[in-house]
Prior knowledge:
The protein has 394 residues and is mainly alpha-helical. The protein is 72% helix and 0% strand.
Amino acid sequence: MLITINSLIFLAVFAISWSVNTITVMSGPWILKRFSRGGDHLAVQSAHVNPTPRLGGVGIVLAVVTGFVLLGDPSDSFWLALLVSLAPVFLAGLFEDLGFYISPRGRLLAALVSGIILLATQQIWITAIGVPGVDALFAFAPFAIVVTLIWSTGMCHAFNLIDGVNGFAGATGVVIGAGLALVSWWVGDTQMLALCGTVIAALIGFQLHNWPKGRIFLGDGGAYSVGHLLVWLGIALVARNPEVAGISIALFYFWPVADTLWAIYRRRRSGRRTDQPDRMHFHQLVMRTLEIKFGLRGKRHISNSLTSFVLTPFVGVPIALGVLFYRAPLLGLAAMVALSVAFVFMYLRIVGLVSYGRKSEEVAPEIVEEPQTVDEPEIAAVVAKEDSHRYAAE
């Protein structure tokens, strides 16, 4: 009976998310006229052509609030604290989506405040990850609290960075939520299972509008909120269930974290600011590879959505390993190291494919002879130049 009731609530959550986003899509022209700075589709990091509403987070958050209220255990205050803590990061992102400029630092500060609210009210933080030696550091509360806040704040920003093609951030959120739900089920934490199911249902309601046609985007309000919800569900799952290895749960967030850390590294390496947007994220290079190698030049509406279809299974690999090793921290650590090496190798390989494809088609003769040694700033310059020509043609 309880399962049936929960299923009906999940269906209601999905319906709310889908309905609110449907209304937003239908109101798109009015929203863009009233609440948009304009030119978002011409931004450096943009992968779409037409102006599009960036308010997908509104429907998701409304659906999540409804689900948490209906499914939240009155004797367990975590769900309520999670909702309250969501306010700063969601509102900061929402104001940005509505055309009021909120700097990246301002949004990060809002994410930090949201994390502090939850940490202070629930007294939960990362106390161990299951790795001998490292756990001794987490036994020192000030260290553990700082790391927890860095992890939660960074995850909000990481989800915003991977929100670059239709459906990718949403699909990543669904798969992460599914991994958390599965572990919650295995350890018997029914409250965490219900909360994870709520987030999944809300995201699916949004996905139907975002993929494949991209009629609405998560926006900063949505991306930061989804990141905040998922990262704290993971932290709470480990805190509430000591048998769950923190390092293995960290595998669930591997893709957003790896993409963000690599972006920081390559931007600093090329002498640019770390908050300066570019077209060199993994998903953007995959999209360019599909266009170059599979005849999709000038068909961005296809390559954009196809990128999510190609990449989502790769996002699922570390999550599957995290689920498999949720009681085996050393195996989780080994998987983390192996996946990190694989990520860098695949990234460099794709850079090589992009540069080689451009060289063979004589699109970018200035690219160096050997694609394996191509410098990323050169590729980025060529990508920006070619895309500017494409926009001018359109």
